[in-house]
Amino acid sequence: MSIAAKYYPNEPEQPVVKVTQIPGPESKKAIESLGKVFDSRPVYFVADYEKSNGNYIADVDGNVYLDLYAQIASIALGYNNPALIEAAKSPEMIRAIVERPALGNFPGKDLEGILKNLLKVAPKGQDHIWSGLSGADANELAFKAAFMWYQGQKRGYNTAWTAEENESTMKNQAPGSPDLAVISFKRAFHGRLFASASVTASKPVHKIDLPSFKWPKAEFPAYKYPLEANAEYNKAEDARCLEIVENIIKTWQVPVAALIIEPVQSEGGDNHASAEFFQGLRDVTLKHGVVFIVDEVQTGVGATGSFWAHEHFNITPPPDLVTFSKKFQSAGYWFHNPEFIPAAPYRQFNTWCGDPARMILAGAIAKEIVDNDLVSKAKEVGDYLYGKLEELQAKYPRHLQNLRGKGRATFIAWDLESAEKRNEFLYRLKQNGVNCGGCAEVSVRLRPTLTFEKKHVDIFVSVVAKVLADFV
Amino acid sequence: MSIAAKYYPNEPEQPVVKVTQIPGPESKKAIESLGKVFDSRPVYFVADYEKSNGNYIADVDGNVYLDLYAQIASIALGYNNPALIEAAKSPEMIRAIVERPALGNFPGKDLEGILKNLLKVAPKGQDHIWSGLSGADANELAFKAAFMWYQGQKRGYNTAWTAEENESTMKNQAPGSPDLAVISFKRAFHGRLFASASVTASKPVHKIDLPSFKWPKAEFPAYKYPLEANAEYNKAEDARCLEIVENIIKTWQVPVAALIIEPVQSEGGDNHASAEFFQGLRDVTLKHGVVFIVDEVQTGVGATGSFWAHEHFNITPPPDLVTFSKKFQSAGYWFHNPEFIPAAPYRQFNTWCGDPARMILAGAIAKEIVDNDLVSKAKEVGDYLYGKLEELQAKYPRHLQNLRGKGRATFIAWDLESAEKRNEFLYRLKQNGVNCGGCAEVSVRLRPTLTFEKKHVDIFVSVVAKVLADFV
């Protein structure tokens, strides 16, 4: 039995589009009304989640779209999943909603079990967790852990702070508030708070007008596609980029305490890099005592054909900190070295220290993925999808440039000729009942759920073919 | 009928303490086990939320404490509140848990109603909301809005960014990433992410080892108590502190774009300031074009005898941005000037843009507070409590110094002689069945829920009296 059939016996057979322009008239009215209290300008359409089912999202005009965007890559199992509804109705969940504890001071007796459910799917080599609330929050909490560890290495893990440190930090001055940097990559996206925006470098709109830490950006490899035909070029590109990273670490005006990277740069254009490149980063960070942080916020939870995307690379030793959010619903970071827990308590701390309601949901998601082997299934479906897209590419090479994500399950993207054409293409997909997202300026990114199957691939591919048939 | 009796027919009559040391043996075991996967060093005891009821929190040793700490001031209505349980079981909540939308792109049709429920209790003068996930997140989102507005004033609200701005921001350099400051106050607490930690200045443990923005700290008035007997001194203190604020704004090395302040500095010691001081800040921020942000994360939602604490001050015009979290369960900021929505969309934006599950709960909390007039009731209970504490103060002046929060409902605090004595006092309260928190170094802060009544006051005061009877 297919997983979609198991979860979603009433999933629509195909998209339904009842309007010619999207948003339709009812969505438009709702967007205008919502706009009086909320910034509704980025709204594509107003959804009807009661009527959404499986891989299909419904809107208030009665349209039903096959969803390959899935809430900006943050829905793992489709809409109205019965196992998650059951988790949402459980007494444990109701308690987590109504009695939200300050987890650091007054955890409930069920917290340990909740965390252990999450740890069952920790990345290879990781056995601790610290919980946060969003991707940006997870990355900034990871930076905190990294900076505390880095300074702890210098002064001694158990060494008390000096009076000078205590006094200077209250004035935001060194040595208590040291000048340290996190290195990241051009085209990276790690969030939009102040430290996370300082390592983000995909689009000006994320950053303009915000004061930022003056942290450096290295270059992420820019491969030529198809990979097989450009192996030598791409290998040289790895070496070039690794050299830039090491040079920055050695010469930056303040010490570089940490490096953060996505296994696939997602918001920045679905830019892939090789296992050799990631191992090279591990080597160079170890050599220079730099904390190695992998941001799995968008790539994690199965969509690349491995529970965590960086597991494809077999990085040895494993990364120091791995952050997560989005499809996991809960957020935070994984780690294995207990020295990433500072010697003094109350340093990595805040009122809530995460949200047990979202952790319970994450546990339920993890269980469904494991029990139903959804990662392997996504890989199979992704390979099938990639093959179909290669066929389309042969027919429409101008509109399917740099097709990428082979062997990465459904984590697939390609480029169009221009931003205008990409946007027009995405709009026409919607008009034909497919909700799909872009990334960077000219790319289409596919981010279906883990319940996306071959039958959904066929519908998607036929809509793409239909749109491309008269796409200029 | 009393509100506690209405909500909590089975609320315990009094605390139960079954152990001599806290944490008890079962808590100790659970803390040790939890410690293998989570930093459990700050845990006071492991709670049993199933058995917690109303104003009483239970632990795994069978102890039942009268709770005046309420999850670091973040539970509004007590434990296992039937109205909130009903909200948690609603189809709307289950949908919000299972189908977490990217609210900015694909809001559900119920979002407008959810937001309008929150706006019913917006601070006087505010009619817009932007939602976040925690107090630190709310403050940083407010900073983003403030910086965008401030730069928009300079370049023109509708003016496009220059090529130089677009290019420089990708390198974290001005003019795209401008050097701007937020002014805050010594002893302030606004969170522990990087920008929020840069405005926090209550304890080194919140800040040590984190790179910070080199933002200035003004002085928060340090009043002499009782206020009536020190009116002249305190008035001069207001003037002194206002002058410092204005001097910093005029002379700081980078432009000061925003000012953030708590209506009562909470974590930093329950430091109060007068309505005149707050009006003075409004005047000086207006004069210099500085965004005025009031942080109501801990003070909001009724505990001071007004739904939002700064409403006591009748600030005119109202603050530009008011942040909230904790007892509201949802987080974000209120505002009224539509220019705090940037001219271009996608600037104040992220994947989730808040959590509708927590917003639904906030709406239910707000409804209960309004329908049952809980703010007035808190005021009445607080006045009663303050009177009882004044009586104890007369008897034990050494252990009840600087009693403060008169006329601020249950938002009451006082000082002991030293940190050691404060900590010993709090521990002995626990041994006698009262869970209570501290703030700053030597203060006790009371943060009961809005269902705390005179009968609970009597129990609390009798335990304090018992502890103080042989307190050296």
Outline of chain A: globular
Strand content of chain A: 5-15%
Helix residue percentage of chain A: 25-40%
Kindly report the greatest chain-chain contact and the residue count on each side: A-B, 120 and 120 residues
**Straight-line N-to-C gap of chain A:** 41 Å
CATH architecture of the largest domain in chain A: 3-Layer(aba) Sandwich
Average pLDDT of chain A, rounded to a whole number, is: 97
Which value, in Å, is the CA radius of gyration of chain A?
23 Å
Structure description:
The structure is a homodimer of 472-residue chains. Chain A has 472 residues and is an alpha/beta fold. Chain A has two domains: 3-82 and 374-469, Alpha-Beta Complex (Aspartate Aminotransferase, domain 1), CATH 3.90.1150; 101-354, 3-Layer(aba) Sandwich (Aspartate Aminotransferase, domain 2). The first copy, chain A, has 15 helices and 17 strands. In chain A, a hairpin with a 3-residue loop joins strand 16 (437-439) and strand 17 (443-445). In chain A, helix 5 (91-98) packs antiparallel against helix 12. Chain A is globular. Chain A starts with a helix and ends with a helix.
